[in-house]
Amino acid sequence: MFQGLKAHLYRKKLSEISKRNALGSIPSNNAFKKVLLFFDGTDGAERKVIQKYAEDLERSGKIVKLFAYVNTKESDSELGIDHYVNKDINWYQVPSNEDLQLILSKGYDVMISVLSELKPHHMFVIKSMKAAMKIGPYMDEAQDLVFDLSVDHQPSLGIPELIKNIKSSIQLLSNGK
User: Fold this and answer.
1) In the chain, what are the domain boundaries?
2) 123: closest CA among 91, 146, 96?
3) Distance between CA atoms of 1 and 130, rounded to whole angstroms?
4) How far apart are CA 173 and CA 177, in angstroms?
């Protein structure tokens, strides 16, 4: 009974946000200028790799915003990145806090998910984003079409390999080859 109620509330909240996003969507003139990177910020080493990727994107003229999920109950304001934590996720797997509301209120040309696994709260955030294109790793457990571009990824190879695959896929698209 609780599982059914949780699923219903999750779908209802996602539907509300999806309708709001569809009504307020403005087509982008630049397909790859404003970029949001969504990632797991729990591991400091992985966070540094992703921050380096963000710096590379900024050097190439992109406007980059970082947003992370941090697997902890404590809200760490010292992180320096907009994020949400476990205490921000309600019982039916919908996250909510000020950082997330700010991220969801803005539109992006491209949202890139640099996550090795997709949990329901990750899926909710990704589906709720206002982005002209969503890029992320291909995952068998994601039955719904979550990303516009799914790239190969083996979690055992780590985040640097995922970033390499994302870069090569974007390059392939931009060259039209």
Assistant:
1) 2-175
2) 146
3) 32
4) 7
pLDDT of residue 23: 43
For 129-141, letters b (16+ CB in 10 Å) and e give: bbbbbbbbbebee
Per the CB < 8 A criterion, the answer to whether 25 and 52 are in contact is: no
pLDDT in tens, 67-98: 999 999 887 667 789 999 999 999 999 999 99
Interacting residues of 100 by C-beta distance below 8 A, sequence separation 6+: 67, 82, 84, 88, 125
Q: How many CB atoms lie under 10 A from the CB of residue 95? A: 20
- The arithmetic mean of pLDDT across residues 110-125, rounded, is 93
In this structure, of 26-30, 45-49, 118-122, the range with the lowest mean pLDDT score is: 26-30
Instruction: Please compute the mean of the pLDDT values over residues 61-66 and round it to a whole number.
Output: 96
Q: Which two tokens stand for residue 117?
A: 């696994």
CATH entry 3.30.420 includes domain 2-175: no
Sign of CA dihedral 166, 98, 12, 116: positive
